[in-house]
C-alpha cells in the first residue's frame, strides 16, 4: 500500500512546480526557435522585479540546456555575445547565492573560445567573479562555480598567451 497522509498520497503533498532544490520548473520548448527561447530566458533573468529568484534559477538552468542543444554560433542566439553577457552579469549581482551560482555556471558554458572570453573580460565580469568568491557567507556552491569558471578562464588565457 502506498504511503499516505490524511488520505492523500505523500507525493501530492510536495510543492507543485518545484524541484527538491527549490528551483521552479520552467518549461523549455526545444521545438521553438532558439532565438525565441533565449529572448524569454534573458528577459526573465534581467527583470529586476516580478520574477522570483527560484524562477530565475530555472531560466538560467534552461539557458545551459539550450546552449548544449544548439551550435555555438552567434546567429543562433538572436543576440550578440555582449548582450547575453550583460544579461548574465545581472545574475551575478542577485541577492540569492543560488542565482549567482547559476549565473556563473551559465557564463562558464557560454565561454567556448577566447573571443567570447575577451568579451567577458572587456565587460569587466572578472570583478563580479572575484566578488562571488570573496563574499563572506556560507556559499560553497557559488564559490565552486566561480572557481570552475576561473579555471576555464585561466585555460583560455594560457591559450591566448601561447599565441603571443
Automatic annotation (TrEMBL):
One of its GO terms (cellular component) is TORC2 complex. Pfam families: RICTOR_N (PF14664). It comes from the Eukaryota. GO terms for molecular function: protein serine/threonine kinase activator activity. Residues 58-154 form the Rapamycin-insensitive companion of mTOR N-terminal domain. GO terms for biological process: positive regulation of phosphatidylinositol 3-kinase/protein kinase B signal transduction; TORC2 signaling. This is Rapamycin-insensitive companion of mTOR N-terminal domain-containing protein.
